[in-house]
Amino acid sequence: MFDYGYRLSLIKLLIRVLVAPSAGSTFLLGAGSTLQLFNLPTWAKIAIPILSVPTYWISRNWLDNHRAKGQAKRFDASLVPVYRGKLPGNVDLIPRYVGLWNRPMITSLKQWTIRTLRLAAGFHGGYPTAWIDELLDEAGCDTLNLRLLWQDKVRGAVH
Predict the structure, then answer these.
(1) Is the pLDDT of residue 85 over 70?
(2) Do residues 143 and 156 touch, judged by C-beta distance below 8 A?
(3) Rounded to whole angstroms, how far apart are CA atoms 116 and 91?
(4) Is 106 a residue whose pLDDT tops 60?
(5) What angle do CA 53, 56, 59 make, to 5 degrees?
(6) Residue 105 has pLDDT above 70, yes or no
(7) Is 90 exposed, middle or buried (0-12, 13-18, 19+ CB in 10 A)?
(8) Radius of gyration (C-alpha) of the chain in whole angstroms
(9) Which residue has the higher pLDDT, 26 or 17?
């Protein structure tokens, strides 16, 4: 009756984002200690796996950006302009990106109807992604990379 596939997707995401970098660094620390290559204090053995997660994602983000610039240069192309939000990772755009659907689960047709009417009343442009057109007008372009949470989200104008 219910689809629980999202839980498996969430578990996979958490493993990829959090567990893999810290497990890799823990494995390297253990192998280095076992082979007596180095002897680190306890605080370093705790701090390195914790700090490996942001270090991995910062370096991966930098490498992805560097690779994209290199490919664009190789093909004599230009990259899509990137929107610069007020907060790191353009976190200030997430409430607009998610919209009004980030609410508790709808349990009845009456709740669905009320929410739909409220949602429709909140759209000044007539459709849910009207805010993207505002960003495009502000940036003065037809295509914009929102870079939500440091991941590319390229959106374009609807003509």
Answers:
(1) yes
(2) yes
(3) 26
(4) no
(5) 145
(6) no
(7) buried
(8) 22
(9) 26
For residues 82 and 75, what is the distance between their CA atoms, to the nearest angstrom?
19
Yes or no: say if 123 and 131 are a contact pair by the CB < 8 Å rule. no
Q: How far is CA 135 from CA 36, 114, 118, 131, in A?
A: 56, 29, 23, 6
> HEC string of 51-117?
HHHHHHHHHHHHHHHHHHHHHHHHCCCCCCCECCCCCHHHHHHHHHHHHHHCCCCCCCHHHHHHHHH
Q: What is the pLDDT of residue 100?
A: 44
- Buried/exposed 98-111: b ≥16 CB within 10 Å, e otherwise: eeeeeeeeeeeeee
The two tokens of residue 108 are: 């009845």
Q: Is the full-model pTM beyond 0.70? A: no
Among 87, 107, 140, which Cα is nearest to 95's?
A: 87
pLDDT attached to residue 43 = 92
CB of 47 within 8 A of CB of 29?
A: no
